[in-house]
């Protein structure tokens, strides 16, 4: 993929070229990635849907996690952090929530706390026997330590 090679302009051009012919789900994803108005509307709808789900089932860790991801995509780090923390409170073995929380904390300037959550994520992956994910967590920790 072009974006993985760091050529953001080429990636944006490629995504924009794909938009008109992409199926609805892919078009929404592309719009989100490009920050287009269509994507922001989809994101706002997702956030409202997750908030509604949480209202009807406050113990749904999945809804809290999905809300965190959507808020993260929207750039609402404080909201995402709160949602990830609630996810962890409800499901303390869900490693991806620790990873996302750690990343959001680092991005919000709370590097020490963020790295602690990332290390907890790595520990959980090890306990769960997820070797590939352990390596990915190690790589992410190294990247975040350099920020």
Descriptive notes:
It is a single chain. This protein has 147 residues and is mainly α. The protein folds into two domains: 8-56, no CATH class; 71-147, Serine Threonine Protein Phosphatase 5, Tetratricopeptide repeat (Alpha Horseshoe), CATH 1.25.40.10. It contains eight helices and no strands. The chain is globular and about 35 Å long. Mean pLDDT is 82; it is low at 1-6 and 22-28.
In total, the number of strands is: 0
Average pLDDT level: 82
- Give me the Rg, rounded: 17 Å
Question: Structural class of the secondary elements?
Answer: mainly alpha
Query: So, the CATH homologous superfamily of the largest domain?
Result: Tetratricopeptide repeat domain
Secondary-structure element order, N to C: HHHHHHHH
Q: So what's the CATH class of the largest domain?
A: Mainly Alpha
Summarize the structure.
Helices cover 78% and strands 0% of the residues. The chain has 147 residues and is mostly helical. Helix 5 packs antiparallel against helix 6 and helix 6 (95-107) packs antiparallel against helix 7 (111-127).
Question: What keyword list fits this structure?
Answer:
mainly alpha; 8 helices; disordered N terminus; Serine Threonine Protein Phosphatase 5, Tetratricopeptide repeat; globular; 147 residues
Task: Give the secondary structure arrangement, pairings included.
Layout: H1 8-18, H2 24-34, H3 37-56, H4 61-74, H5 77-90, H6 95-107, H7 111-127, H8 131-145
Helix pairs in contact: 1-2, 2-3, 3-4, 4-5, 5-6, 6-7, 7-8
């Amino acid at each position: 993929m072009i974006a993985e090679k760091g050529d953001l302009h080429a990636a944006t051009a490629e995504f924009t070229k794909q938009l008109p012919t992409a199926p609805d789900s892919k078009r929404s994803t592309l719009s989100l990635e490009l920050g287009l108005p269509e994507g922001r509307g989809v994101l706002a709808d997702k956030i409202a849907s997750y908030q509604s789900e949480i209202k009807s089932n406050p113990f749904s860790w999945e809804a809290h996690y999905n809300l965190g991801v959507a808020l993260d995509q929207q750039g609402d780090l404080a909201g995402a952090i709160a949602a990830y923390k609630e996810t962890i409170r409800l499901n303390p073995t869900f490693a991806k929530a620790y990873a996302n929380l750690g990343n959001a904390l680092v991005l919000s300037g709370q590097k020490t706390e963020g790295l602690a959550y990332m290390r907890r994520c790595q520990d959980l992956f090890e306990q769960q026997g997820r070797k590939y994910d352990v390596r990915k967590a190690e790589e992410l920790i190294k990247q975040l330590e350099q920020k």
